[in-house]
Amino acid sequence: MQEPSCLVNSGTAGSNELVTVEPCGLKPCGAIGCGVPPDVEFGTRNPVKNFHRPGEKVYINCNAGYIRENDDMSITCTENGTWSKTDNLGCSVDYRIQLSNTLLATDRYLPQLPPSTGHVNISFEAAVVEIIDADEKNEHMFGSMAFRLSWKDNRLSWTPSKYGNVTQLVLTTEDVWIPNIYLIRNSDAKFSMFPAAPVTVTSDGEVGWDIVDLLTTTCDLEPALFPFDTMTCPVCLGTTTSVERFNCPVEQGNEKPLESESYIEHFMKCGDQQKEVVDQWNAEWTVFVFLFVFCLFILCRFILVISKQVSYSLNK
């Protein structure tokens, strides 16, 4: 038996009314199906009809400020005329939205102002993701570099128990204060600033900013050592104000390190050294810190390779 249909006014065309035929949502006599889907707290159901045939789905959408309690928030009308599930269909409060709205309210937080009226200590780590090119002739290096900067901003601290035990929040560099840094030995005229990126904030006000970017920097070449040339390429970050103070991160015993959204696995701290063979050069890099400058020194040693071409002939 077919489901009852109703004539529905769907608008006008000139002086004529447009009428369409749609299901009335009424249960046909003797038909097997499901009735009205269960209510959803802090959410809506779509579609909502008085009758659903077996196999039809109803999707759950949460109201603004709420999140789904399960990944699969849909229910299906089964062959025996019951809904596939009726539990765990609610929407819970998204404390991250409440927390970010509270922390970043304009009456208590301005990203233009630093966390302190004095100096802000910036701890850093660094990593060389990939050396793409080391150009001896033009004395510059092109590669993918990563920096991890962290600092304290007490304005961004909160009590986790008041916000659903949320202990970490991901914001962006446009939302919070970040150090005014620039690339000192920049060799790319098109590069002006680091792109916007996520920052990680913990409940104690610790802010972490991971910078991963393709950079071209100038190098210092020692041609006197030819054919074993040595080229030093400092990748240095400087500050445009006197507020920031770079320093080396201090181990905090058993304290859990700040988790980050970055895919970089191993960052280096002050004094750490690493060596890697990249194509035709051997590269070593070390991290150093100065008062207003943080540098990742990359030392490339080039080895002259003499190859002998051998030709073969096939005698028939």
TrEMBL record:
One of its GO terms (biological process) is monoatomic ion transmembrane transport. The chain crosses the membrane at residues 285-306. One of its GO terms (molecular function) is transmembrane signaling receptor activity. It comes from the Eukaryota. The keyword Lipid biosynthesis does not apply. Residues 32-93 form the Sushi domain. Disulfide bonds join 34-77. Pfam families: Neur_chan_LBD (PF02931), Sushi (PF00084). Keywords: Disulfide bond, Membrane, Sushi, Transmembrane, Transmembrane helix. GO terms for cellular component: acetylcholine-gated channel complex; neuron projection; plasma membrane; postsynapse; synapse. This is Neuronal acetylcholine receptor subunit beta-3-like. It comes from Branchiostoma floridae (Florida lancelet). The gene is LOC118417003.
